[in-house]
Amino acid sequence: MEKRQHIKWWYPLAAAVLLAVLALAGRSRDRAAEAEPVPPVLVIDAGHGGADGGAVASDGTLESDINLDIALRLEALARFWGLTPVMTRTGADIAYPSEAGSIAAKKVADQHARVGLVNNTPGAVLLSIHQNNYPAAAPHGIQVFFGPVAGSDALAETTQGNLTAQLCPDNRRVASPIDKGVYLMKNVNCPAVLVECGFLSNPDDLQKLKTDAYRTKLAAVLLASWLQYAKGSSI
Predict the structure, then answer these.
(1) Which of 39, 59, 161, 212 is 20 to 30 Å from the Cα of 231, by its Cα?
(2) Which fold has domain 2-232?
(3) pLDDT single digits (tens) 114-129
C-alpha cells in the first residue's frame, strides 16, 4: 500500500508521456475512451514475487522488484485513463497455501493462482511484465513474446513496435511466440503477451531500468499499446 501512495507524484508526467505516444499513433484520449460493446479488461502481471525473486542483477537488483514497480505505474496510469485493471499481485509478498512448503511448491501454487485469476476475468487481455538475463553482458533490448490464443500476436507486434520506436530505436528484436514451457502463458485462455523490458545482465539496460523516469515511460508505452490493440479488438 505504501508504494501505491508513493507514486502519485508522477501522474502528470506519465499522463504527458502517454498523450505524446497516443498522438504519435494517431489516437486521442476521446477515441480511447469510446465505449466498447464488451470492453476488454487489462490484466497486469508483475512477474515473479514472494519466494521467487526471478533474475538477479550483478548489483543485487531483483527482477521481481522492477517488475512490480513497472506494474504499479501501469496500474495507476490505467486508472487515471479511466480503466479498471486487474493485478495478479500488488506487493512484494505472496500469500501461499499452507501445504506449499518448498520454494518449488510455492512457485507452482502461485502460477496456478495467477492462471485462475486470469481465466476467471471476462474479457481479459494479459500483459505480463518481466526482465531478461543472460550469462554475457552484451545482449540488450526489449522483446515481446505472445501466447497461443488468437490476438496475442497482434498485441505483441503493436507493443514491440511502439516500445522499439519510443524507447530503443536501435533494437533489432521482434515479437516472437513464447516458449511452450512458460506455464502462465500456456494456460491462460485469453490474448496474452510477456514483455521482457530489458536485460539485467546488460549494464546500460540495468541503469535505465533502475530509474523512475524510464519505468514511467515503459508503463506509458505499454498502456498506449494495450489501448491501441483493445480499440481494434473484437473481444
Answers:
(1) 212
(2) Aminopeptidase (3.40.630)
(3) 999 999 999 999 999 9
